[in-house]
Amino acid sequence: MTPARFSISRFILCGCSYAVVLLMLLLPLVLIFTEALRQGLHTAFSTLLEPDALAAIRLTAFVTIIVTVINTLGGIAAAWCLTKYSFVGKRFLIMLIELPISVSPVIAGLIWLLLFGQEGWWGNWLTAHNMQIAFAVPGIVLATLFVTFPYVTRTLMPYMEQQGRDAEEAAFLLGANFWQTLWQVTLPDARWALLSGILLTTARAIGEFGAVSVVSGHIPGVTETMPLHIETLYNGYQTVAAFSMAALLALCAMSTVVLRTLFENSFRKQPS
């Protein structure tokens, strides 16, 4: 290929890439913020201060914090186990961890209903003990836990595999216990990967719709997270309120993406 043809091909490829980004990513964001601010900034803010909107924001924040903490601890433990030890069934365990990525969130929600719904396997027992998981906050937490579990584990595993076990075995020989080795030897080298996984988990938890929609029951002010509240507002023809909540959700998602990019760039700039 001649240099001229190569330049033309590169120009066309770059142009197509920018066009896809513009049409698929930037244009929807512009439309969301335009619709949200159609009646002014004051109106947009006032819709976010409605009782149901505040309840949805609080519930989303509550579920996200719980899910992120649990999945961070579980992800660290799973990544440590899978990268530092060899055992029978290791590949099967990796497959199970990656299962939420390939399974539809709606199916995940239906599984929780099958287990904890009123007509589910444990429904009668839960009812007899005055416990409710489906159509309540515990069901939302479980559904979100399932769909966000792989991110910390899969982000940490490549870095822990590169570390090997030499430094950790040296720490054990010097008298360090498991927790000292984990916090002072293993995780410091993988801290940017850990933060990246935490941010991915946070972004997915904030925006999860499918699994939560199945198990929540869509009860306004009680079991509606921000994505579900957006659907309720839009179906009720409250366009400004729906797009205002969507704009807030988009800002949260963009913030996590920007932070993750900054952390990754910081990691790449570190001397090896």
Automatic annotation (TrEMBL):
GO MF terms held by the record: ABC-type sulfate transporter activity
UniProt cross-references to InterPro entries, sorted A to Z: CysW_permease, MetI-like, MetI-like_sf, Sulph_transpt2
Keyword Zinc: no
Membrane topology: Multi-pass membrane protein
Compartment(s): Cell membrane
Keyword Transcription regulation: no
Stretches assigned to the ABC transmembrane type-1 domain: 57-264
GO cellular component: plasma membrane
One Pfam family recorded for the sequence: BPD_transp_1
Annotated function: Part of the ABC transporter complex CysAWTP (TC 3.A.1.6.1) involved in sulfate/thiosulfate import. Probably responsible for the translocation of the substrate across the membrane.
Subunit structure, as described in the record: The complex is composed of two ATP-binding proteins (CysA), two transmembrane proteins (CysT and CysW) and a solute-binding protein (CysP).
Protein name: Sulfate ABC transporter permease subunit CysW
Organism annotation: Acetobacter pomorum
